[in-house]
Amino acid sequence: VPDRPAYADLTDQELMARHAEGDADAFGEVVRRHRDRLWAVALRTLGDPDEAADAVQDALVSAFRASARGGYRGDAAVTTWLHRIVVNACIDRVRRRRARPSVPTSPEDLDVPAPGDQTAARETAIVIESALATLPFDQRAALVLVDLQGWSVDEAAAILEVAPGTVKSRCSRGRARLLPLLADLRGNRRTPEAVPSEKAEPVARTPARGEQP
Amino acid sequence: MSDHLSPETVSDLAEGLLAPNDASAAEAHLAGCAECSDVRSALADVRALLATVPDAGPMPASVADRIDAALTAEAAASPAGDEVDQGAPTVGAAAATVTPLAGRRAGRTSRSMRWLQAAAVFVVLAAGGAIVVSALQSGNKDQESSTTAAADAGAESRAAAGSAGPKITSSGQNYSADSLATAARALVAAPMVARQDSGSLTAKSPEAAPQVAPGSPSPTQSSPDGFVALSATGSAAKLQACTDSLAGGPIQPLAVDFARYDGNPAVIVVLPGAKSGQLWVYVVGPDCSPADEHVLQFQAVTQ
Predict the structure, then answer these.
(1) Mean pLDDT score of chain A
(2) Any CB–CB contact under 8 A between A193 and chain B?
(3) Residue of chain B nearest A142, judged by CA positions
(4) How many Å is the Cα radius of gyration of chain B?
(5) Do B11 and A7 touch (CB under 8 A)?
(6) Cα(A137)–Cα(A109) distance, rounded to whole angstroms?
(7) Minimal Cα distance from A203: which residue of B?
C-alpha cells in the first residue's frame, strides 16, 4: 500500500490544491465532507430526490473538472464554492423542467428522521415543501439556505453571488408569499409537542466549517 | 395612514429593508393595528416553521455511491484535464451518467482500486450483456435518459449522434479479426446505459436491474479472471497514456472495451479515423504503454 496522506488533517483548500496537482483521492475526501449538506440544499430546493441526486452529481462532476484545471481559486470557502455550483445545477434543472408539469412530492420521498412525532413532523414537512415549491426559484433558494439550512445572510449571499440585501429581500418576499400557505400550521407550532424534536438541536442545523482547521 | 400594510411591507420591515421614513410610518401603523401586528407575528411564525423542517438527513448511500462512481468515471475519462476536456463545462449540461451502484462505498481507496471497484461492477452487471458507462462531456441528458428504453430501435443512432465522451465497457467478448469491424461499430453506436426512469436513485431501490444495450455484442465471456488480467491497464492515466500514444496526441477515444482477442486479454480502443465516418480500431494488450503499445490488431473501419 503506497503512502497515503492523512486527509483528515488537511483543510479543504489543501485538498483542492492536491486535486489540482493530480491527487485522485483528494476531491473525493472533499465530497465526503460536504455531500450531506449539498444534498440537503438540492433536495429542499428541488423537492424531488431523483432531481436532487442528478443535480448534485452534475455539480460535483463539474466541480471536479473545473478544479482539476485550477478553477477553484481559493477566494471563497470550498463549501461555499461547492454550494454555489450545486445551486446553479438546481437552477439549471428547474429551467429545463419548466415546460413539464411539476411532480408532486410523495410522503415517502421526504427524508423525515425517525425520532419524534414522525407523523406530525412528516405532515409539517410536506406542507412546507409544497409551499416552498410554489415560490420563484430565487426566493426558494434563499429561504432554503437561510431559514432551513441556517446559513447567515452573508454566507448565503456568497453562495448565490448576490448582495446581502438581495438575499434579505428574497427571504422577505418569500416568507410573505408563504404566509397564506402555511397559515394552517401556525397553530401546530404553538404546541410544543407538535414541534419535531429535531428543532431542539440547533447545532445540527448550523453549517459546519470543514475547511477551517 | 389608514390602509393596512401589505405582508411584503411588514416582512421587509422585519428584515430592515425599508427606508427610515417608511420604517417609521410602518411602525407607527403597527402600533395601532392589531390586524397588521398579527401579520407580523405570522411572518415570524413562518420563519420559525421553516426552521423546523427536519434536516434532509445524510445523502442516501445509493446517491453517494452513484456520485463516487461518476467521479471515478470522470477521472478515467479526462485524467489530463485541459487537453481532454473540450470546452468549459457548464454546470448541469455536463453530466456523467453511470449505472447506480449497489456496492459499498468506495471509501478511501487508491485510484486504481477505485477503478477496479467500478470495473468489478461492470463484471457483475455484464452477466446480462455489455454495460456501458460513459462520462458525457456534452449532450442532452434528457435525451440520453430517454434512450434508456433500450429496446427503442432508434436509440443507437441517437446515442451515437449525441455523445461526445468515451464509452468504456467491459464486455468480456472474445473478438477476432473478422468480428472486429462489426464490434467497433456497435461499441460506438451503443446507447448509454443510464439510470432507470424513476426510483432507482433513491435509497429504496438501489438495485435496479441494468439496462442492456441491444446493439452491443453479447458477451461470450465475462469472467472475473479475465478482467483481473486486464486490470494491468487499471489506472486511468495508463489507459489515457496508451490511447494518446496510439493516436499520436491527446485524444478522447470513442469507445474502450476491456475484452479478449483471439482468446487473450485485450483492450479494444476505437478512435476517430482520418476522415469523417471512419473508425480506427486498435486491439492492444493489457500492458499497452507509450513505450510499447502492444498492438495486436489494427483496422480502419467505415462507421
Answers:
(1) 79
(2) no
(3) B50
(4) 27
(5) no
(6) 20
(7) B55
Pairing of strands B295-302, B264-272: unpaired
Left (φ > 0), alpha (ψ -120 to 50) or beta: where does B113 sit? alpha
Q: Mind telling me how many Å the CA of B63 is from chain A's nearest CA? A: 6
Give this complex's ipTM.
0.76
pTM equals 0.52
Cβ neighbours of A143 in B, within 8 Å: 50
Query: Which of B45, B70, B110 shows the shortest C-beta gap to A189?
Result: B45
Q: Give pLDDT, residue B156.
A: 35
Residue A92: which of B45, B91, B106 has the nearest Cβ? B91
Residues A47, A133 contacting (CB under 8 angstroms): yes
**Region A86-94: what's the mean pLDDT?**
93
**Mean pLDDT score, B295-303:** 81
Q: Which of A24-33, B122-131, B205-214 has the highest mean pLDDT?
A: A24-33
Structural element, H or E, at residue B281: strand B278-284
- Is the pLDDT assigned to residue A90 strictly greater than 80? yes
CB atoms within 10 A of CB A78: 22
In the beta sheet, which residues pair with residue B259? B266
Average pLDDT of the residues in B26-41: 95
Residue of B4, B22, B38, B55 to mutate for A, most A C-beta atoms under 10 A: B55
C-alpha cell at A128: 412546507
